[in-house]
Write a structure and sequence with these properties.
Blueprint: E1 6-10, H1 14-27, E2 32-37, H2 40-50, E3 54-58, H3 66-73, E4 78-83, H4 86-94, E5 99-102, H5 107-120, H6 129-141, E6 148-153, E7 156-161, E8 165-171, E9 174-179, E10 183-186, H7 190-196, E11 202-206, E12 209-212, E13 216-221, E14 227-231, E15 237-239
Parallel strand pairs: 1-2, 1-3, 3-4, 4-5
Antiparallel strand pairs: 6-7, 8-9, 8-12, 9-10, 11-12, 13-14, 14-15
């Protein structure tokens, strides 16, 4: 009787998650995908709930990164990293992680990963401490910040460079992207953008607001004495939460 192994797929992009799941179903039908996670928090819960044999972990996810999850999975299950960055892949493979899968996925590369996993699955999962330190150092030293986004405006999609953006503001399930001339909507939450934007360029001034420092004209106080950001090329002002007032001490 063929032993069934369990796996968790943690990937925040739904299309890529489905592609990987479909490819695994064809290449390794005995592998049970016991859970799918769209962020690091869900992945950590799945690790505890299902005790999988394998975890496919996207390195960059909201909530908790793939590195955070791998730290908890170290020695408990085999890990295959899912990444768009070559600099992670070499270190991951050389230091004992089972394997890595590059985005965008190719059937041939996933087939190679499956083959390697089948060879390793009967052995004890690797201790990933050394690997995780290497990856954490590489991430901090070479982090690539978001340079552009696609946003909806009516029936159209716009490509907006981050230099054009004056501020981001949470708007129910969406985030409002404001340039000097236009406003658009994206489905990415503020907390995710905080991690992806250069903190030297975009300051969080409120739980739901990120502002481009190059667009700031100064600060003012409203009738209640609360501080607000004045913008160079827009008339509205933006409230500053008490938690972020310290950013403007020099003004």
């Amino acid at each position: 009787m063929t032993k069934t192994f369990k796996a968790v797929i943690a990937e925040d992009e739904p299309i890529l998650r489905l592609e990987l799941k479909d490819a695994l179903a064809k290449l390794w039908p005995e592998l049970e995908i016991c859970a799918e996670a769209e962020d690091g928090i869900e992945a950590l819960r799945a690790l505890t709930a299902y005790s999988p044999d394998i975890m496919f972990l996207d390195i960059q996810m909201p909530g908790a990164t793939g590195l955070d999850v791998a730290k908890q999975a170290s020695g408990k299950c085999h890990v295959a990293f899912v990444t768009a960055y070559d600099k992670y892949a070499v270190a991951a493979f050389e230091q004992g992680a089972v394997d890595y899968v590059m985005k965008p996925f190719s059937p041939a590369r996933i087939a190679t990963t499956v083959s390697r996993l089948k060879e390793k699955i009967a052995s004890a999962p690797a201790n990933l401490d050394g690997l995780l330190k290497t990856l954490a150092d590489a991430t901090n030293a070479n982090k690539e910040y978001l340079r552009w986004i696609t946003a909806s405006q009516g029936n159209d999609l716009r490509l907006i460079t981050v230099e054009e953006i004056v501020y981001f503001q949470a708007d129910n399930k969406y985030t409002l992207v404001v340039t000097t001339q236009q406003e658009s909507l994206i489905r990415r939450p503020i907390k995710e953008l905080v991690d992806e934007l250069d903190p030297q360029t975009f300051w969080q001034i409120h739980r739901g607001t990120l502002v481009n420092v190059n667009a700031i004209a100064g600060v003012t106080r409203d009738m209640s004495g609360h501080m607000r950001v004045k913008l160079k090329q827009r008339k509205e002002t933006l409230p500053i939460s008490e938690s972020y007032v310290h950013l403007f001490k020099g003004m």
